[in-house]
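The instructor's notes for this session suggest beginning with a concrete chain rather than abstract definitions. Hand out the sequence below and ask the class to guess, before any prediction is shown, which regions might be ordered.
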Amino acid sequence: MLSLQILIDGFAISALYALGATGFTLIFGVSGVLNLSHGAIMVLAAVAAWAAGSMLQVDHYTGALIGVAVALAAALITYFAVVQPIQRSKRIPNEEKEIFVLTGTLLWGIMIQEVIAYLFTNNAKTVLPIIEGVVTVLGVRTPKNEWFTAGVCCVVIGLLWLLVNRTRTGKAVLAASMNPRGVTLLGLELNNIYIVVWAIYGVLAGIAGVLLGMFLGVSSYSVGPLTASAFSIVVLGGLGSVSGSLIAAFVVGYLETLTAYLVSPAYRTIPALLLLVFVMYIRPQGLLGRR
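After discussion, reveal the predicted structure:
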């Protein structure tokens, strides 16, 4: 029974990690930005959905859409107010812009975290699930919301694959991740592609954040661990590799679930971090990374 419970719970949390990390690695693969405000944007989406339901008394679906919309807005603000000004600055040497972007997104994430704590306190917020009740599978009782969370994550990742591989916009994004200069030679505006990618990222982070709020609950204290988890998954899978991030998300998700059940929830992140150190030692580019 325990093994089946670990299998089910591990799949749900891995799918959530995969959804969150996919947007994170997409941003890096196309624009070369490691967005350290990632966790803050996810928490902001969950808190916005919770506030909409608790304070505005909207229904579950509307609250979830509000949370995703807030994350989308936060992602675009991150690009236009933090990332783009640094990338276009003539006062910052090109070789130093990457560290400035890292620092800028980190500070922006801290600002979001502090605003959330100031307006809504540090207490954990749980978004009311869209689907309530439990389902029994081979004697294991699991919340229906857990299955819903895993299903939505898989569907969204599948839709993202279709967008990237079957649409003109997606192919432009894919081309920009391979050869940005070549895209400009084809007459495509690189800045417009960046905006599309950040918008996609905002939607993915928003959905992941709202689902996380329904599944586990979040607080302002969740910002750091969420950013660290996404960063670890992306580095483990290989910077810029969506496939690698998906594989790494399931490896990390199941490692954390096994540790939480068999050892203690307090130590759930340690094995994944040890694995990251080991992989970086023998394969610095990650599982499927090329650089």
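Then share the key points. The CA atoms of residues 259 and 267 lie 7 Å apart. The two ends are 42 Å apart (CA to CA).
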